[in-house]
Structures are given as C-alpha cells and as structure tokens.
Amino acid sequence: MNIFGEITCYGQCLRSWAPIVAFIVIISLSSVATSLMLKDPKKRLQTFAFAQVSGLIGVTLTYYLMNCSEMLSMYLFFAYQAISTILIFGTLRYYDRLMIKRLEAKPAGSILKWTQEYVDKLTSARVYYFDSAFPKAFAAGRSIFVSIGLLEILDDDELKAVLAHEAWHIRHNSRMPFLSRLALMAFSSSSEPELEEQADRFAAKVAGSAALFSARNKVDKVFI
Amino acid sequence: MVKLDQINISNDGLTKFFSPIEAAILRALWSEGEMTTSELTGKTNIPLTSVAGTLDRLVKAGYTTRRTETVNGRVRYVYEPVLSEEEAASEITTKILDSLVQAFGPLAVENFSKYSDKK
Q1: What radius of gyration, in Å, describes the C-alpha atoms of chain B?
Q2: Contact across the interface for B48 and A153, Cβ inside 8 Å
Q3: I want to staple A130 with a disulfide (CB 3.0 to 4.6 A). Which of A40, A105, B26, B89 is the partner?
Q4: CB proximity B37 to A under 8 Å
C-alpha cells in the first residue's frame, strides 16, 4: 500500500477526530524542525523532548480513537515513539552528568572549599569547575558549572553573586511542576529574560547588589 | 592557524603561520617563560574576552600547557610554552619543506641547495 493510501485510510478510520490528530502531528513535526534549527544544545534537546511527547500523545490518541482494526505501522510507530521518549527524558534528567563528562568537570570544593559550602546554604546542588580560560558559569540539572577563567577574574563577593544566581535557577527548576516545565520547553525563549531578572534579584539579595553589579560588569553576559 | 593548515605568505613575521592573537601570545610566552592570564593580557594588551578562546585553542593544539594554582585563596592559570622559539621555528620549517618536496619533488630540493649556496 502506498503512503498516501495509508494516510487516507487513517483519515477514514479516525473520522471526526482526524483534524485533532492532524493538528498534534503538525505541532510535533514543527517542533522537530525547530529543534533542528536551534543552536543551543540544551534548548535543542528540550524542544526535541517536547516534539517526542506531542508525538506520543498523537499516536496514543490515534490508537484509541481508531474505528477499524489496527495496522502494523501503528504498533511499530507506537513502540518507537515510546522508547525514544523515555531515552530523551533520560538524557534531560541526566544532562548535568553528560556535561560533567564532556567538560571533564571536577568538584569546585577541591580548589575553592568555600564555594560548595556557600551553595549548600542556598540549595542542594554540586559545584563543578572546568578547564577553560573563557569566563563562564551555568546551571544544569542539580549542578553549577564555573570555568577556571571565571574563578580567575572574580573576587569572592562577585563569585558569590554568580553562584547565588545559578543556585536560584536550580531552585526554580526543581520547584516547577512537570507540566509547566513542558510548557516552558515549548515557549522558553519568551520567558527567559524574566527568569534571568529573577535570578539576578535573588543574587543581589543574597550576595549584595554591588557584588552582582561588578560581576556583571566584568563578565558581561557570560553567566546565564 | 595553529595547525599550520593555512599559511599566508604575504603576512608579516609569525602571523604568516599564526593568527595575530596567537602570535602575540606565543611571543610573550617565549620572552617571559611562565605567565599568568593577567600577565598575558597586560603584556599583549589584548582584552581577556578576545584572548580566552585563543588560549584554550593553543592549549588544545599543544603549543602551550597550563596548570592551575591556588594562591591566597585565588585560583589562576599559569601558562608555559611547550616548544621554544627555535624548536617551533624548526618544526614549522620542516613541515613547509616537506610540503614543498611533496608538491615539486627533485625540483624543490634543487632550489633548496641553490638557496643555501647563495647564502
């Protein structure tokens, strides 16, 4: 049977539900396309995860709504979609472990003992440093990553401001319920500046706005 | 480029083989030996944001090594050149001569001997 014949067949089996399923399929395909165009690896992964989930919803819906006997392609696609969704979420869940491996990151407590102790007071997260002269800090999963280049140029107060900023991201991520995180994956770009602002407000409260201000001045936009 | 896959004959000095920032860093390291990042940015007069990526690249390509030091609670890199200026010069020369011989065979060798006779 050719592919168009099969699609028409699905359309007939689904009857009035066909437009809804088609809509979900379009959402899924367009988020796959978006994820291919995104440059930031984490956003890419998140958009792809969103595509996977919407694909899974689409295929499950089709499975239950069909009025005819199921087709083999349906079973195969369902199995593929279910397995790959689990894999993608596994990757997201352990994203920080991946980053530790890729950057060959080591616990920051081993070179600057107070950094881990300071973060412990704010949230439960591990602090890692990695080998790069470029000043950079970011949070992933339950881990905070800082480059040696960042440790070189910041004094203790400025570093505290950066750590507090990243700790806020981790606290915020872990408090957000699963479904709203999924929604954020789909529309992340619009709400991001606001998140950064909130993280900065927290950092200013904890470490002082002078320290945050001078850290921002030194590394202009390289901690996110 | 540090990998010597691109040579700009019309450029001056080291920038024939290295980017201007790479050349400035290597020149500084050859004259001083060991240097911290702030000493490097001070001596070359290039801001950290432009120098950082190049430093990572030079380390990755094996032209410099760096170690991490903690002094008075401050973490810093200390850079060191892997090859001396003479060693780097002979490595570059050998690579270029090799590629000339590969391209022109005996003709290239003939020209080398003419060149050294002239000197």
Answers
A1: 17
A2: yes
A3: A105
A4: yes
Q: Name the one residue in this structure whose structure tokens are 């009857």.
A: A15
> What is residue A151's predicted lDDT score, i.e. its pLDDT?
92
| Residue B8 in contact with partner chain A when CB distance is under 8 A | no
What are the helix (H) ranges across chain B? Answer: 20-32, 37-44, 48-60, 85-104, 106-118
Tokens of A49: 């995860």
- Considering only CB atoms, B70 lies closest to which of A111, A131, A149, namely A111
Interface test with A, best of B48, B69, B71 (most A CBs within 10 A): B48
B84 secondary structure, DSSP code: -
DSSP H stretches of helix in A38-142? 41-65, 72-93, 95-103, 113-122
Mark A142-174 as b/e (b = at least 16 C-beta within 10 Å): ebbbbbbbbbbbbeeebbbbbbbbbbbbbbebe
Query: CA-to-CA distance for B24 and B7, rounded, in angstroms?
Result: 17
The first and second tokens of residue B47, run together, are 């801001």
Nearest to A151 among B48, B51, B75 (CB): B75
Which segments of chain A are extended strands (E)?
Answer: 106-107, 126-130, 137-140, 143-147
- Average pLDDT for B27-40: 92
Are the C-beta atoms of A185 and A177 separated by less than 8 Å?
no
Residue B67 pLDDT: 94
A104 contacts: CB under 8 Å, gap ≥ 6: A130, A131
- Model confidence pTM above 0.80: no
Contact criterion met (CB < 8 Å) for B77 and A156: no
Tokens matching residue A133: 């002269």
pLDDT of residue B55: 93
